[in-house]
Amino acid sequence: MNICLIMDNPETPRHPVIAVALQKLSARHSVRLLDVRTLTGEQAIAQEQRHAQADLYLLKSHAPQALEVAHYLEQQGASIVNSWSSSVACQDRMLMTQQMNTARLPWPATQAFTSLNYLLQDQQQLSRLAFPLIIKSCYSHRGDLVDKIHSREELQALAPRWGQEPIILQSFVPGDGWDIKLWVIDKQIFAARRRTPLEPGASKEDISLSRDELPEEWARITLAIGKAFNLRLYGVDLLLTEQGPMIVDVNAFPGFRGVPGADEALVALIERLGQER
Known about the structure:
Elements: E1 2-7, H1 18-26, E2 30-35, H2 41-48, E3 56-59, H3 64-75, E4 80-81, H4 84-91, H5 93-102, E5 110-113, H6 116-120, H7 123-127, E6 133-137, E7 146-149, H8 152-157, H9 159-162, E8 167-171, E9 178-185, E10 188-195, E11 207-209, H10 216-229, E12 233-241, E13 244-252, H11 262-276
Helix pairs in contact: 1-11, 2-3, 3-4, 4-5
């Protein structure tokens, strides 16, 4: 089987999970990398056209040029994990909101604005805001805006750096101080707890949860996300609130760093998809 990994991070080939999976796959299959880091979408497509189409593409990058080449490849009949449309829905937080609402999954009330400056100029809209709120970039990207704000003054203070950024505002839903981190590889769920990053000085250390410790409701919600977004590889962040579990983020094709057994599960999925292909 010929496998191509679409990537944009120079650390990916040395990643503690991805690198091990690639090494195991390379022992039995042909594996190559398409690094789009310094390429435009057009250049990435032109570079890929010099190769025979791979049996399976792994879309590890969510950079615009990576999504562009993935879209082109799908139009040529290529098999991509995760698909272009699934990956885009996890980058565009309003698309994510629409799909969450359509699937009736627990998701915070969300509003979109063309820019932070646009919101700050709308006094009527500002007067209706109920603080605290969560503010995020409308499009998920490395180094994007994600913050908890308590007042108009804090919102205004973001303007010098983020004024032109398309944003969403979400209702703040108090949790129990922990994020539930869930990772899925072909319906196999891995889970851990981590202190919420919105708390000052919060530890980033994960406390692993066994499958037996995973409540059925969390598993049901997590797998329903995969079905709604047509994802094979993804990560989910849940908050535990008084209203029950609340989804706060979905990541198409995370790195699975620190997830025991993720490399074996990743290899098994890729080889099964190759056989089906």
